[in-house]
Design brief:
The structure holds 2 protein chains of 2 kinds.
Chain A lengths: L1 H8 L1 H4 L4 H8 L5 H7 L4 H10 L2 E4 L7 H7 L5 E5 L19 H9 L6 E5 L5 H10 L5 E5 L2 E4 H10 L5 E5 L2 E3 L18 E3 L9 H9 L6 E3 L6 H10 L5 E4 L8 H12 L6 E4 L6 H4 L10 E3 L8 H8 L7 E5 L3 H11 L5 E5 L15 H10 L5 E6 L4 H10 L5 E6 L14 H10 L5 E3 L6 H10 L5 E5 L5 H10 L5 E5 L5 H5 L10 E5 L5 H10 L3 E6 L20 E6 L12 E3 L1
Parallel strand pairs in A: 1-2, 2-3, 3-4, 4-6, 5-7, 6-8, 8-9, 9-10, 10-11, 11-12, 12-13, 13-14, 14-15, 15-16, 16-17, 17-18, 18-19, 19-20
Antiparallel strand pairs in A: 20-22, 21-22, 21-23
Helix pairs in contact in A: 3-5, 7-8, 8-9, 10-11, 11-12, 14-15, 15-16, 16-17, 17-18, 18-19, 19-20
Chain B lengths: L36 H10 L38 H13 L4 E6 L6 E4 L6 H12 L4 H6 L6 E6 L5 E3 L5 H7 L2 E6 L13 E7 L2 E5 L8 E9 L4 E6 L3 E7 L5 E8 L3
Parallel strand pairs in B: 1-5
Antiparallel strand pairs in B: 1-2, 3-4, 3-5, 6-7, 6-11, 7-8, 8-9, 9-10, 10-11
Classes of the chains: A alpha/beta, B alpha+beta.
């Protein structure tokens, strides 16, 4: 807000400048939050800002309608849309809940917006939408789909065939129906503009010769991530004709490599001196990781979180030479010892994610990580600011040490696999440990808590986490007070998601106005009742209060209108366009 | 022939998931009954009256109801741990995309898992050689054959989620029913499958009688379809999809499986 105020003071002078100059000044302010502030300064600034805004970010596709978006920003070129709530990633949201892309493409197409870039997260995308997209926007350059579903490779074929200026096609973790067609063949021979191609999530066969030809005629290709259907020798050929690659995702090599093929791969890899980022490796024989030794010192980003076949010792051998690593995503099979080695080798590390290789503890082996690994990383990596850590156990002492070592955390997400697990040495709750984190990390924006936690941890969070924007709570707290501490204390809170915690109507209804400052609230398996939700909906017409029912067949079949009935899943969000019309039967909007 | 303590329900055959008095579904798997394999091993060596306390897990008797949707304990709750479904699916797909015949092998004290392909394995001896190579542990072949002198024993989990000693059944039958393998220290496995004596406990919960199992992480329980307490011994009969067991002992709280039959077809 400071910047906007300063600008406001000089508005009177600035009004002597023509609009184009002011617009040019605004070009230096890309952050959409700052642009939102600028648009509030005066009517003329609002107008100038509107027409010069090219990038728009919409965190909840139901907060606004496509028509209103286009009316306000007619010169839109880049749009980011997010659909389903975060917990949809964990199967807590019915498949047909919503988040459909089509109305947006339809409206943008009709209004002849010059769309160039579309980034979607957790949206339902259809082949028809992709086809319409590919035909409607001549200058379309970039399509990024993250955790989306509803489309097939036929949709991809439309994009490939019709988007003449396509630079980026990035498919991350989507559920795509693979028709094993020839979508790669659909890139016309004249298509040479590709910079980034990621189809790692496709499950089917890949036309290897089409892929090779495409890569060969794309001199600007910097990022290539292939799927499991690309074997070792094909990968060698691809890398040979694209030594300029910066970012590579490898597929699957099911069989052990012949020594000759392996030599050829290593030779091709050696030539990729610009390679900085490596990922993939699912179903890969460990020896193939060693093919990348020649360039591992150059790597800044390494994602081995799908490499379940590579055992801890091989991971450690490789990672310890990646001295420039800034981002590391890995499985817990690396173990505490492995993390200690990472801590001593990777001094540039900024972001670490450690995923569970055995989430339900079925193997009963001892390779999961513990507080020891976390403490080692915090001690060894001074630049660490983001962490996602799945572990078997934790202690307050460890968290306090971590807080002291790393006061710069922006994102701190800790998931202790067993719910309600206390400090395994003192058997106490982990309130003090998390309290230390929020107190020390003054810039903390995202926090996920786990383990045994009482209301006290939320008192700490409310008191200290002044910059917190997103908080995830599971199996925690004792009474409504817990949730109230957070709602009252965290002034910058935007997203709050809670599951299996004893928070009820009193907390939900205490400060209805708070939800206008937030993007959304999710509560599942808590103590809120239908009556409470109804009251909320009555008092806050600018909120959509959605009840997602357990039985997906009908709108609250049994115990119809029983206000004392506990609500299974509640999702509420602010909106300027009222109740949405596309909700399925299992969702009731109050 | 005294019938004591259990009431008339004992002789009544009833099927279905456990429910409490209010008709609410009872989630089995309280921390009391669920025991992890390692805990069970420890308690077995601490067992003072000498009865084998190693147990097998068995399916809930059901002709009608699928119990997979009932979370047995919090760690099996929907969406927990919070790992993206895409990531979970990718890991699971890996399992099914591997050739049938691959089973995981773990060895106590070794921090990593291996896999062996039973499909290409020719027999117990060959399997033992493969395992020896994988874990750098000579002598497993001897363990299989003689069973008495070597430091380690090899056990496997069969389709019923019972842990059995490798080598007892014909190779073909073993190949088909083996889901995974473990190499454990002999001292940890006393009484374990060596005499095929598997011990169960009877628990009374909400007007029903249950044989509790403990190896499975799910803490599943099997309904006893018949129990009878005599003056000097007690008998219980229980059945799953695949087996019928008859358990008896002089102690009502500590029945030992005396007979186990595989159901055909």
């Amino acid at each position: 807000m400071d910047r906007a105020i300063k600008l406001q003071l000089s508005t009177s002078e600035m009004n002597y400048f023509p609009d184009e100059v002011i617009e040019h000044i605004f070009d230096f302010i890309p952050s959409h939050r700052d642009r939102n502030s600028i648009s509030l300064v005066s009517k003329s600034w609002h107008k100038i800002e509107r027409y010069s805004r090219h990038q728009v970010f919409i965190g909840n596709c139901y907060a606004i309608s496509p028509e209103r978006l286009i009316r306000r920003f007619p010169c839109l070129r880049s749009l980011t849309l997010k659909g389903k709530p975060h917990f949809a990633d964990f199967n807590l949201v019915p498949h047909e809940w919503g988040g459909f892309l089509h109305p947006w493409i339809d409206a943008l197409s009709k209004a002849r917006v010059g769309l160039e870039e579309l980034r979607l997260k957790r949206m339902v995308v259809s082949d028809e939408s992709l086809e319409l997209l590919s035909r409607s926007f001549v200058g379309f350059k970039s399509l990024v789909l993250v955790s989306c579903d509803g489309f097939t490779t036929d949709g991809l074929a439309s994009i490939a065939a019709n988007c003449r200026n396509l630079r980026e096609l990035d498919l991350q973790e989507n559920e795509i129906d693979d028709h094993r067609g020839q979508w790669l063949n659909c890139f016309p021979d004249s298509s040479t503009t590709l910079v980034s191609l990621n189809f790692a999530c496709l499950k089917g066969e890949t036309n290897l010769s089409a892929l090779e030809r495409l890569v060969a005629r794309s001199p600007n290709l910097k990022s290539l991530k292939v799927n499991r259907a690309v074997p070792l020798d094909a990968l060698t050929r691809l890398m040979s004709c694209a030594p300029q690659l910066v970012d590579l995702g490898v597929g699957c090599y099911e069989n052990e490599a012949e020594p000759e093929s392996f030599e050829k791969l290593m030779a091709a890899i050696k030539k990729c001196t610009l390679l900085r980022s490596l990922s993939g490796f699912s179903e890969v024989a460990p020896v193939c990781l060693t093919a990348f030794y020649p360039i591992c010192e150059n790597l800044t980003s390494l994602n081995l979180s799908y490499a379940a076949e590579i055992q801890g010792n091989h991971l450690i051998e490789f990672v310890q030479f990646c001295k420039r690593l800034q981002l590391l995503w890995i499985l817990d099979s690396i173990g505490d010892k492995g993390l200690e080695i990472v801590a001593s080798s990777c001094k540039e590390l900024q972001e670490l994610r450690v995923f569970p290789s055995d989430p339900h503890d079925e193997e009963d082996n001892n390779t999961a990580v513990t507080e020891v690994g976390l403490v080692a990383i915090s001690a060894g990596c001074p630049k660490l600011h983001s962490i996602l850590y799945f572990c078997k156990q934790m202690t307050n002492a460890a968290l306090i040490t971590v807080a002291k070592n790393c006061p710069n955390f922006i994102r701190f997400r800790l998931c202790i696999l067993e719910p309600n697990k206390p400090d395994h040495i003192t058997s106490q709750s982990l309130d003090e440990g998390f309290g230390a984190i929020v107190q020390a990390c003054k810039g903390l924006r995202r926090l996920s808590v786990s383990g045994l936690l009482t209301d006290k941890v939320f008192l700490y969070i409310g008191m200290y986490a002044a910059q917190l924007e997103m908080l995830s709570i599971a199996f925690a707290g004792d009474t409504d007070k817990g949730m109230l501490y957070v709602l009252n204390g965290c002034k910058k809170l935007r997203k709050l998601e809670i599951r299996d915690s004893p928070f009820g109507n009193a907390a939900l209804l205490a400060d209805v106005g708070k939800y206008e400052t937030m993007r959304s609230l999710w509560m599942s398996s808590c103590e809120v009742t239908l009556g409470g939700c109804k009251r909320l909906a009555r008092n806050a017409p600018w909120l959509n209060v959605e009840i997602i029912n357990e039985n997906e067949n009908g709108r609250m079949e049994r115990n119809e209108e029983d206000e004392r009935e506990k609500v299974d899943r509640l999702y509420l969000y602010r909106t300027v366009v009222g109740t949405r019309k596309d909700a399925p039967p299992c969702v009731t909007i109050l | 022939m005294a019938k004591e303590g259990l009431g008339l329900e004992i002789t009544e055959l009833r099927l279905g998931l456990p429910v409490d008095n209010n008709g609410e579904r009872l989630v089995s798997g309280s921390k009391k009954t669920k025991r992890v394999f390692s805990e069970m091993m420890i308690s077995s060596s601490l067992d003072t009256d000498g009865a084998n306390s190693v147990v097998s897990s068995v399916d809930i008797v059901t002709g009608e109801v699928e119990d997979d949707s009932v979370p047995k304990d919090k760690s099996q709750a929907v969406g927990w741990p919070p790992v993206c479904s895409y990531r979970t699916k990718k890991n699971n797909n890996k399992e099914s995309s591997k050739a049938i015949g691959y089973v995981k092998v773990s060895m106590c004290g070794v921090p990593y898992l291996r896999k062996v392909d039973l499909g290409t394995s020719k027999g117990y001896t060959h399997l033992a050689t493969v395992l020896e190579k994988l874990f750098d542990c000579l002598g497993l072949g001897v363990a299989l054959k003689e069973g008495e002198k070597f430091e380690y024993v090899i056990i496997y989990e069969d389709k019923d989620r019972d842990w059995m000693l490798v080598g007892d059944v014909p190779w073909e039958m073993f190949k088909e029913s083996c889901m995974r393998l473990r190499i454990v220290k002999r001292s940890d496995a006393t009484g374990f499958g060596l005499q095929r004596d598997l011990s169960l406990q009877l628990e009374h919960l909400h007007n029903r009688t249950w044989l509790t199992s403990t190896t499975s992480r799910n803490g599943k329980m099997i309904k006893a379809v018949y129990t009878q307490r005599f003056t000097d011994c007690s008998v219980a009969v229980a059945a799953t999809r695949h087996v019928i067991v008859v358990a008896a002992s002089d102690s009502y709280d500590h029945l030992i499986i005396r007979h186990k039959w595989e159901k055909l077809g």
